[in-house]
């Protein structure tokens, strides 16, 4: 059993302990010294608890602590409909465990956050204590738990793969260089090679880990390090089997957020999406026709969707199918990586997909090539030498099943879900073109 | 629901389907073409399945596939006590999904592994398919699941922190340098700063992610990238509250391995340790006395334990307490990082611990300083300037509770548990002084 030196009770547990004398520990969220009474509101990981000091000696002991002082308060749990949670601590005694050396950049007890994003990020260790700024990260943790639980239930195995690689697999640009004991190497842009190779060992694998993109631009939706939720599975018919697994994953993530982060969703006014039994899908070529007919702009001939057209398609899916999710399938091969499986019968298109969620591309995935000779042909067709890919290709020299997978950016998901104006609000300590601290 | 193009059945499910005509898909583990019968043994993620071909036409179709060919076999499930799992597929039809371009470096179907470790690692995408080489990684995945489940149950929040930092927190040496958009930076040696800072936000946090040590030596127990299972919690009395949480974590890991990887433990002849309700503990100073009395060598005055003495202490704990785990507490401050909390009343010792498991240090942890002024004093006492630690210290300027935590090396745990002679056998794609591929 876990023993702690004091038998501490969490704020959220107080309503069950009316009449008991208990100890609550947390940060002084707000102190209100009045003439004949002092109110202290403590904040712990479960919520807020109020203590009421009325005896002159106790009032003196309770006064003078700046907000964010770490306090231990022992008192009698007493019902009071006006107090947070309907209870408060009376006849309390207070001990300061440690005091702040400095005030936060803004008052953490106020309902809003009167600070710019750079201020929030510069002072993350203290600003993230604000309930509004903390909440996305609780939702994020629940989302990852849901991702893993869904895949565990489908027979997937978790893997941990190298973040330092001898050559870039996704593309030569946008990589961070490392000096590896004197050998030039790179931070991994994705676990693509490793997860595909491990289909040969475990059939179904996932990884939840950092990936690195040396994006030289500064936007509200790009990070130089983000958490990639990757999955890959063998013995698929085509990309639709991958999409079916992704549907289960999204349902698992949403359900776990509802169960584990309901309080945070309420605080941020988050409406969780319904994940349809079958997420609507539309082929890329058909999507372009719809966009042309619906917007008056004609994107046909373009090999990718413009952000504005992704938003338009999302609205279309909501209108026509009542779904906040939409699969766009069959992206032109020319815009997909060399390992992408072409569409049988229409080799200019691919067995790939993007998942749009509330107007934004959230997931990219698809079926991959699985035959060694197909890889050689694909590289030759692109005029690329197979030599730099030798390590990558080795996995396919030994018999690989038809397979596919997807990658979901955790911070992008959380930002979209919580309606954040910037992906950095869904990242504890963002790393980007300009930010390497704290 | 998940639909696949064929309704595939796993090898392990066959005993429940006797009499049914089903499709099994997997790798040709072993083909045995005899004069009047051909046996094919398929391997999938659940185990092995045998198909028996007796009709001349079917025998011809089943012959000539090299091992590791990916096959789809449809047949009738028939009881046969001699076959793997007590069943086999009869009247089978076979389709090759993809063939190997090359034979594996050794036969994967033989019970043993007749290859050196470098061969195994050089060809990881195919050698890890061998059941003996695959098993540690299934045990590893179950271990991480157990780690998370134990901490989830204790109110911890999962975090994802930067792997690129502007300055080294653990020590100036052994860091990998990165060019971050022109700014010198480093791969993170641990999430130490971030997890401590997040105690101020979530109270109890964990992370399961990669850490990087530019260890310039090549040993059987060091890697340059490994998976660190990190936890940190606030409102502790002292390091013993951290040890109590670690005990729960070890119990959770062991139970989950037993439940999810029982087959792999049996294959590797792993005996899971019992985690005592209370893991025995011994103070560093007392441990040195015991070692002096027991071995004839006198380590007193040394600030750390030699590996041989760790082994001796482990044997002592097994002999005296019947435990394969032993906490050594109170390591001298001089060998612990600056953020370590000293032992009250004996400030030359610390409120820290190592956990020994089967003769090896597996976990390091302890109570940390939590007051800003104590950090300043600790750095001054070491003759270090506070300036390089400004970012680190910022978290402690705003009120931090007494807290502590620990870090457990996943690969070291798995290697020790499985009796591996080298930590690389518990790592899918090791990274070290000499190895950057595959």
Automatic annotation (TrEMBL), chains A, B:
Database matches in InterPro entries: Aa-tRNA-synt_II, aa-tRNA-synth_II, aa-tRNA-synth_II/BPL/LPL, Asp-tRNA_synthase_2, Asp/Asn-tRNA-synth_IIb, NA-bd_OB-fold, NA-bd_OB_tRNA
Domain annotation Aminoacyl-transfer RNA synthetases class-II family profile: ranges: 147-430
Subcellular location: Cytoplasm
GO MF assignments: aspartate-tRNA ligase activity; aspartate-tRNA(Asn) ligase activity; ATP binding; RNA binding
Signal peptide: none
Positions that bind L-aspartate: 170, 213, 364, 368
Quaternary data: Homodimer.
Important for tRNA non-discrimination (site feature) positions: 84
Function: Aspartyl-tRNA synthetase with relaxed tRNA specificity since it is able to aspartylate not only its cognate tRNA(Asp) but also tRNA(Asn). Reaction proceeds in two steps: L-aspartate is first activated by ATP to form Asp-AMP and then transferred to the acceptor end of tRNA(Asp/Asn).
Keyword Lipid metabolism appears in the UniProt entry: no
Coiled coil feature spans: none
Gene symbol of the encoding locus: aspS
Family matches, as SUPFAM superfamilies: Class II aaRS and biotin synthetases (SSF55681), Nucleic acid-binding proteins (SSF50249)
Alphabetical list of Pfam families matching this protein: tRNA-synt_2, tRNA_anti-codon
Catalytic activity: tRNA(Asx) + L-aspartate + ATP = L-aspartyl-tRNA(Asx) + AMP + diphosphate
Protein's UniProt name: Aspartate--tRNA(Asp/Asn) ligase
Entry keyword set: Aminoacyl-tRNA synthetase, ATP-binding, Cytoplasm, Ligase, Nucleotide-binding, Protein biosynthesis
Record has Cytoplasm as a keyword: yes
Annotated region (Aspartate), positions in chain: 192-195
Species lineage: Bacteria, Bacillati, Actinomycetota, Actinomycetes, Streptosporangiales
Superkingdom per UniProt: Bacteria
Family: Belongs to the class-II aminoacyl-tRNA synthetase family. Type 2 subfamily.
CC per GO annotation: aminoacyl-tRNA synthetase multienzyme complex; cytosol
Species name: Streptosporangium saharense
Record-listed ATP binding positions: 213-215, 221-223, 361, 409-412
């Amino acid at each position: 059993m876990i023993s702690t030196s004091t038998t501490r009770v969490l704020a959220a547990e107080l309503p069950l302990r009316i009449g008991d004398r208990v100890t609550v520990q947390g940060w002084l969220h707000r102190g209100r010294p009045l003439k004949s009474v002092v109110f202290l509101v403590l904040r712990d990981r479960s919520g807020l608890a109020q203590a009421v000091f009325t005896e002159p000696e106790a009032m003196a002991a309770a006064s003078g602590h700046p907000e964010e002082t770490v306090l231990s308060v022992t008192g009698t749990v007493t019902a009071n409909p006006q107090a947070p949670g309907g209870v408060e601590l009376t006849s309390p005694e207070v001990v300061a465990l440690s005091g702040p050396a400095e005030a936060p950049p803004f008052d953490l007890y106020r309902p809003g956050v009167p600070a710019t994003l750079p201020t929030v990020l510069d002072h993350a260790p203290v600003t993230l204590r604000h309930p509004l700024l903390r909440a996305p990260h609780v939702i994020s943790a629940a989302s990852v738990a849901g991702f893993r639980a869904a895949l565990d239930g489908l027979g997937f195995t978790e893997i941990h793969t190298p973040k330092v690689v001898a050559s870039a697999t996704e593309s030569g640009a946008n990589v961070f260089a490392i000096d590896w004991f004197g050998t030039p190497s790179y931070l991994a842009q994705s676990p693509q090679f490793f997860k595909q190779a491990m289909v040969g060992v475990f059939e179904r694998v996932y990884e939840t880990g950092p990936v690195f993109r040396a994006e030289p631009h500064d936007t509200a939706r790009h990070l130089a390090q983000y958490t990639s939720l990757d999955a890959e599975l063998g013995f698929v018919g085509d990309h639709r089997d991958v999409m079916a697994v992704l549907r289960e994953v999204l349902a698992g993530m949403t359900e776990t957020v509802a169960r584990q982060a309901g309080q945070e969703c309420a605080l941020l006014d988050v409406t969780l999406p319904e994940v349809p039994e079958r997420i609507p899908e539309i082929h890329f070529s058909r999507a372009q026709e719809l966009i042309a007919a619906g917007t008056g702009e004609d994107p046909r001939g373009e090999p990718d969707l413009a952000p504005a057209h992704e938003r338009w398609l999302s609205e279309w899916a909501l209108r026509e199918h009542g779904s906040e999710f939409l699969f766009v399938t069959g992206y032109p091969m020319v815009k997909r990586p060399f390992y992408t499986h072409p569409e049988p019968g229409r080799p200019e298109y691919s067995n790939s997909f993007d998942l749009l969620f509330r107007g934004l591309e959230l997931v990219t995935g698809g079926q991959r090539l699985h035959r060694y000779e197909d890889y050689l042909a694909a590289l030759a067709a692109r005029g690329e030498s197979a030599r730099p890919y030798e390590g990558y290709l080795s996995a396919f020299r030994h018999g690989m099943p038809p397979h596919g997978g997807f990658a979901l950016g955790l911070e992008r998901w959380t930002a979209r879900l919580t309606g954040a104006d910037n992906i950095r609000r869904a990242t504890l300590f963002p790393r980007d073109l300009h930010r390497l601290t704290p």
